[in-house]
């Protein structure tokens, strides 16, 4: 029986609420008492222990439009501290410098025994080990499928379906924006500057394009993959990182003549590196436009490649799956007790 | 270590079997034998063997035994497993210099340059490297590019 709170009501938060509304029958099939009891943004929160009205919540753009119940000036911490929730979905903005505000929210929730599902990379990049051990100590789930490669179920796949395999190497195209830019340069022969401008116009870049173009986003994802799937204990500074600013049209044409595309690839094996690489055009990793791809090499299964949408509203698929995992697992635990 | 060992055998029965003895004695593992019976000259047939010996010393000992048996050695050389890779360099690195100076352990088998005088000069190199030295060679290339302030793009 899940009482859910959501921290953050932006693009993903809103989309998620709409998805809960749309899929409520499916969710109630697994947990008939499922309800959202609280949602916060940067200025306050909505809270009702009997459950918020998903239909109304789906129709508003801002929490303050929902009803008088909106408590302006109150913090997300306060909502967590009530301790009445058993799952928090954390979807506040990513901050890879100190992980805040998400890191404090997650710690507060886990300390209270509240499971956490998130698509926010920041806290996991900054404090992966701290958070996972806190979750373990408090017997909580901490699931983060939406943080890497959007809708691609990489963590679930490896943790559930490759339990006996050892992961030897992971290579991935983990940033859709740079893949879009490099694909435009490859197919249309545009310059880097023009392709970047196009990506901006299509709303594909972060406010600060450096986050994508200099490989910061891809490096954060590499850190999470390394820690979560390859039992490493690495930080952002451990990633050897080169962005795509210096990849010229000429370089791409020369590569193309030899049947390679240039892609921003994250590689995790002995090293952990993000840099432009030559990818053979018939390699499964060679996907174009905003697509993401992850290629894993294991001792038993050998090679597996996953391709899918790396960001945007599709990310909600990953978050919802994590929520359903928590529902099912907690239900089966309570049956055992 | 793999070697190409080509010898000339008299075109008589039992010669090959005799010649294989010293190879076995010195720990050679025969990977393939090509017996070119259709090309005898002066009653001798060339036989090409690919043999894996633990070291060069084992090959030399084998050769001297074969010679003592009166067998002519046509060729005995190491077969080096090589990899061909492409690398692209972007930056005003002195391209001519790289090509003239060469790259340690690597044979440059092709290159293409575009925009050679600009800041964004671009050089595509195709090199052949003994496979066992591949990692080391790529690391050298990477360091060389870094010290020249160029971007290097290598295959995955
Ligand atoms: N958008 C995507 O395609 C995508 C894909 C994968 C992962 N993600 C990740 O998912 C997370 C959410 O993304 P998004 O696109 O939904 O971001 P967003 O549109 O910027 O929304 C962020 C939300 O968090 C709220 N917030 C900010 N500071 C807060 C605080 N101190 N306390 C409580 N709430 C706070 C904001 O409140 P206000 O409304 O008051 O500003 C806003 O509602 C991010 O970490 C992002 O990196 C996003």
Summed up:
Chain A is α/β, with parallel strands linked by helices and about 325 residues long. Chain A has helices at about 10-20, 25-30, 55-60, 75-80, 100-110, 120-135, 155-160, 175-190, 190-200, 210-215, 215-230, 250-255, 315-335, and strands at about 5, 35-40, 45, 70, 85-90, 115-120, 140-145, 165-175, 240, 260-270, 270-280, 290-300, 305-310. Chain A has two domains: about 5-150 and about 315-335, NAD(P)-binding Rossmann-like Domain (Rossmann fold, 3-Layer(aba) Sandwich); about 160-310, Dihydrodipicolinate Reductase, domain 2 (2-Layer Sandwich).
Characterization of the model:
The complex is a heterodimer of chains A (337) and B (156). Chain A is α/β, with parallel strands linked by helices and 337 residues long. Chain A folds into 2 domains: 3-150 and 314-336, Rossmann fold, CATH 3.40.50; 158-309, 2-Layer Sandwich (Dihydrodipicolinate Reductase, domain 2). Chain A is built from 13 helices and 13 strands. Chain A has a 7-stranded mixed beta sheet, sandwiched between helices. Chain A has a 6-stranded mixed beta sheet with strand order 9-11-10-8-12-13. The longest helix of chain A has 22 residues, at 315-336. Chain A is globular and about 65 Å long. Chain B is an alpha+beta fold. Helix content of chain B is 29%, strand content 40%. Chain B contains 4 helices and 8 strands, in the order βαββαββαββαβ. Chain B has a 4-stranded antiparallel beta sheet with strand order 2-3-1-4, covered by helices on one side. In chain B, strand 2 (29-35) and strand 3 (44-52) form a beta hairpin. In chain B, helix 1 runs antiparallel to helix 2. The interface between A and B is medium-sized, with 24 and 17 residues. Strand 11 (272-280) of chain A pairs parallel with strand 8 of chain B, so a sheet runs across the interface. The complex binds NADP nicotinamide-adenine-dinucleotide phosphate.
